[in-house]
Design a protein that fits this description.
Structural class: mainly alpha
Strand order of the largest sheet: 1-2
Number of strands: 2
Radius of gyration: 32 Å
CATH topology of the largest domain: Four Helix Bundle (Hemerythrin (Met), subunit A)
CATH superfamily of the largest domain: GntR ligand-binding domain-like
Helix content: 55-70%
CATH class of the largest domain: Mainly Alpha
CATH architecture of the largest domain: Up-down Bundle
Shape: globular
Largest sheet: 2 strands, antiparallel
Order of helices and strands: HHHEEHHHHHHHHH
Strand content: under 5%
Number of domains: 3
Number of helices: 12
Length: 264
């Protein structure tokens, strides 16, 4: 059965969430068509969908690439996740506890997270930790926001890769366990607080540096050497002394042009 554009885009998002596609990775149409055994038209449709979702970008001359979020985009992505996830938990609180089937699904996801932490497959671990938030949205009964969260989670995964996050996977899993426990006992206020703290912890672990100076490298290269001024002054003083010693006395009959040449 031929693969669809939706399936290709889903595979690419999964690869991003598993940290198997780094920010800036090139996605060649021909290579993807060969990999998925489909036409370039199908691949282009998949990539166009991902571009609309903010996962990839296209350059007219260079092709398709996984996005490289800026620092402002990173901040906006985390802010968007706060609005969506905290809002979901808050809105669910008005209806009471979540149902038992949803809780079983969440707990099963947590078991997979714990198992992944004990294995060496970093990709699977990364995917499950990010997918928890998508799973939570689904269990809270909003599949539309779950799809939106999948895209934002993929983007924040790229952000973590790009800005070398120091966030601990074990801590992330423990945060998820506490959030589910709060939901199970019907304490949505605590679950909301825990989610806010969790997202804040993940964001604070990013090594976001101050805006770089585009001329920094050239500025450093062309800066005067430390002792250049001192050497220049010393050299000028030595030359002056030599010129003074070589200069004729007022009674000297040497031609004035020779005297000026000695000074210059």
């Amino acid at each position: 059965m031929a693969i669809s554009a939706s399936e290709i885009s889903a595979r690419i998002v999964e690869a991003v969430m598993a940290q198997k596609l780094a920010p800036g990775s090139r996605l060649g149409e021909q290579q993807l068509a060969m990999l998925f055994d489909c036409s370039r038209t199908i691949v282009r449709e998949a990539l166009t969908r991902l571009a609309a979702r903010g996962i990839v970008t296209v350059s007219a001359r260079r092709g398709w690439f996984v996005i490289e979020p800026s620092q402002d985009e990173a901040r906006e992505a985390f802010e968007a996740r706060r609005v969506i996830e905290l809002g979901l938990i808050r809105s669910t609180g008005s209806t009471g506890k979540i149902d038992k089937a949803a809780l079983r699904q969440l707990k099963a996801h947590l078991q997979r997270e714990r198992a992944a932490l004990k294995e060496s497959d970093v990709g699977n671990r990364s995917f499950l930790l990010g997918d928890f938030h998508v799973c939570l949205a689904e269990c809270l009964g909003n599949t539309l926001l779950a799809d939106t969260l999948r895209d934002f989670t993929a983007r924040t995964t790229l952000i973590a890769m790009l800005y070398q996050s120091t966030h601990d996977a074990v801590q992330s899993c423990e945060d998820h366990v506490r959030i589910v426990a709060a939901l199970e006992r019907g304490d949505h206020a605590a679950a909301e607080t825990l989610m806010a703290e969790h997202i804040g912890t993940v964001q604070s672990a990013l090594r976001v540096q101050a805006p770089t100076d585009p001329l920094a490298q050239l500025r450093d290269a062309l800066a005067p050497l430390q002792n250049t001024h001192a050497v220049a002054v010393a050299g000028t003083t030595t030359k002056a002394r030599r010129r003074k010693a070589a200069a004729p006395s007022p009674d000297d009959t040497t031609d004035s042009s020779t005297y000026l040449g000695a000074l210059l």
